[in-house]
Specification:
single chain, alpha+beta
Amino acid sequence: MKQIRNLTLLLLLVLSLTACGSQTAAQSELQDGYYTAQASQYNFGWKEYITILVKEGSIVSVEYNAENQSGFIKSWDNAYMQTMLHTDGTYPNEYTRYYAEQLLKGQGNDDIDALSGATSSYHSFQKLAAAVLEQARKGDSSIVFVDTQPSES
């Protein structure tokens, strides 16, 4: 009788630890904190970056943008917006929010569709997103610098 009780307790303990372990592993793929990936160099005067905030293993905030050497944010540049809108059909304040929203909704697990007129930024975004997600998986909050320049084939 005592052996059955001990065996039952042992089985319950193992089951409870297994359940907790799998829940923790699933929830902790991304470590809580702020993570940033930044282009390693300026492209046409702008350096793109992504910053995410992870809470309880989920991405709760995404900022994707670019800044020039003085720190001015690309999506705030109205002259640039007007020029790009008329030539490409989109502008930085639109596509940066679009790509950030796609990353947030998909939690880094879904493919992100390219927005017409912002293909170059799409390719940079994909590289930066992969790097920032890797930092979040490792729990490494240091800024990671990424070569976002198109590779020559």
